[in-house]
Amino acid sequence: MLTNIFAFFLKISPRLKRAVWKKLYEYLSKKYPTAEWTYMNYGYESCNEPIAIPINEEEERDRYMIQLYHYVATAVDLVDKDVVEVGSGRGGGSSYIKRYLKPKTMIGIDYSKNAIKFSNTHHSVEGLTFIHGDAENLPLANESADVIVNVESSHCYGSMKKFVKQVNRVLRPGGYFLFADLRPSEKIEELDKTFNDAGFEVLKKELISKEVVNAMNAFHEYKLAFFQNMVKGWLKKPLNDFAGVKGSNIHKELSNGKIVYYHYVLRK
Questions:
Q1: What's the distance, Cα to Cα, between the start and end of the chain in Å?
Q2: How many CB atoms lie within 10 A of CB 183?
Q3: Contact between residue 87 and residue 130 where contact means Cβ atoms under 8 Å apart
Q4: Alpha-carbon span 171 to 200, nearest angstrom
Q5: Which CATH number among 3.40.50.2300, 3.40.640.10, 3.40.50.150, 1.10.10.10 corresponds to the domain 2-267?
Q6: 136-193: per-residue pLDDT in tens?
Q7: How far apart are CA 114 and CA 56, in angstroms?
C-alpha cells in the first residue's frame, strides 16, 4: 500500500484524511528543512506554447511548479490586491506571487506549524506574511481579501464544504477564488455542487491533467535524483509516489484519467 500512498489518502474518510495529512506535512517540514525544497505541487507545462516567465536563475529548478502558480494566479490581475493563499506549504508559491505579481499584501496560511516556521525562515519578502491556520476555520476577518488562491491543497481537507464557505466569508463582494487541485474523476460533480451551493459564479473550469502530467514527465529526472539524495530507507518508495515521479501511482492515474486535475476561476 505504501507505493499507492497518495491515492489511498485521497479516498480515506474525511476525519482520518485530515489527521493523516497534517501528520505527514508536519513530519516532512521538520525532517527535511532544506532550503531547496520550497514547492510541493506537481507543476504545469503547456501542451502548446511554453509559458514565458522571467524568473531568477536560481529559481529555474522550480520552473514547472512556478508555472502552475503563474497559470492559476494570473487568471485575474493581482496588482495592489489583498491576496491570501490557503495551504501555502513551504511558502514558494506565496513568495512567487508577492514578488512577481505585485499584490498589495500577501498572506500564506497553512495547517502545519512546522511549514509556517520554515516559510517564515526562508521567505523574507516585504508585504508577505505566513500564519498558522485551519482551512476550515480561516483566522481572517469577514470580507478582508480580494483574492484567495488554493493550489493542490484541498484534497487534504476534512470538509471541502466548510473550506469553501470560509473562502466565501473572507472574500470581499466580487472577490475571486483561484483554485487548482486533483480529484478522483467521479468526484468532480460533487466539487461543482460545493462551489455552486456556496454561491460562487464559475467563470472558468478547465481540465489541466495533461499539462500537469507534462510537467511531471519533464521534471522526473531532477525530482527522482533530489529525493534519492535527500531521503533514505523505507520512505523512498512512498515519497516517490507522493512526489509523482514516472511510474508512481499518482502519475499513472493522472495519465489514464482515473484522477483528474482541474483549474477553476470563481467569483463571489
A1: 40
A2: 17
A3: no
A4: 11
A5: 3.40.50.150
A6: 999 999 999 999 999 999 988 889 999 999 999 999 999 999 999 999 999 999 999 9
A7: 27
